[in-house]
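1st attempt posting a full record on here, be nice pls
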Amino acid sequence: MPLLKGSQPRIDLAYAQLASSEMARDINRDIVLELIRGHQPVARADLSRLSGLQPSTVSSIVEQLLSERWIAEGGLVRRPRGRRPTLLSLNDKLLMLAADIRPRRAIVAVLDLNGRFLAREDVVLTSDPERSVPRILDCMEDLRRRHAGYTFEGVGVSLPGRIDPLTQRLVHAPNLRWAGFDIKGEMEKRLELPVELNNAANASLLSELWFGRMDGVRNAVLVTIVEGIGTAILANGQILSGLGGLAGEFGHIPIDPAGPACTCGQRGCWEVFASSSAALRFYAESQPQAPAISIRGLMQLTEEGDEHALAAVNLQAKHIGRGLRLITAALAPEVILITGDLTVGWHRFGPIIEQELRDSMLAGPPPRLALTTDVELSRLRGAAATALQRHSGYHASGRSPEQARRRPRAAAPVYADD
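the predicted structure (as tokens):
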């Protein structure tokens, strides 16, 4: 992985090993592929200049990527004299399937290697994975039939829970309750494609990194505010997964032991005060005779000036800001990214969160607060990017080195286990 701007080289001598020529080739391949993705259409000579690699090395890597069909040759560059170089781009005939799984529904999509959406469908889910996963697979197979002229290279799935990086099984998903079910195995058996799973917050953060919206940021935390609270950690340029994939569960840190019961089994977790479910509970408590509504309905009421809806979401926003102290005190990030249901009313509720964050700082200025792109799009793009990442190679998924080497992998970020 190339060093990012402002980074310092780090060598852990306890785990140091000499780089083999094969490892060096893989690293160089990653760099060239990432440069093509970021600068397309681009000529071979420009790749050599941008990467610092010898022209012969770049040419060899390009030929390999062409033979594997990850990239394609396009038009010619017009130059006043000399040879007109051929431009290279990612192959738009290669596609990925992605799924963003929620407790009650899944969004299934087809994306190309540039993250462009070709199709999206909604699937209604139940609490039973044995009934729900086949529904997702039916949708995926239908989308694949509708794009018969393309080649599908893999499947990425984002989930509202923590996934063990080694087993690729859900180990903590209190809002989904599918822990233990072999989602990856069932999907691979039926689709006959490599499948990679990722936590929804990590997928959203990966999407922000993958599409270049965090250039120069080395330390950040992304907070998803939906039916629960999810967080993803970028530390010194690495997305942290922790032991067993459990790093970053700030939503399940108790802040009031006498508070309401949480789906994780504890009481008074940050999630029960700051999630979309919490806002709906606050509203229902203030309006016990009102019919049940969705979070979208609640946000619509705030736009209409409903005083009970405004009070409920104002209270949620205060709890979000106060809970961010857990993150600033523990990690001191440069940026905190917010994504989820509340962001549609950020003009109204964002200032409340920012004020609470400022008031809760231990010392120094607060980190910058920023919104991500659409929560559904970022989860889906992040799911697709997960399937392209080096961290899910043959050593983690049981594939051979030859199979893993055939898959594209971005130069950054990498996932680090604590």
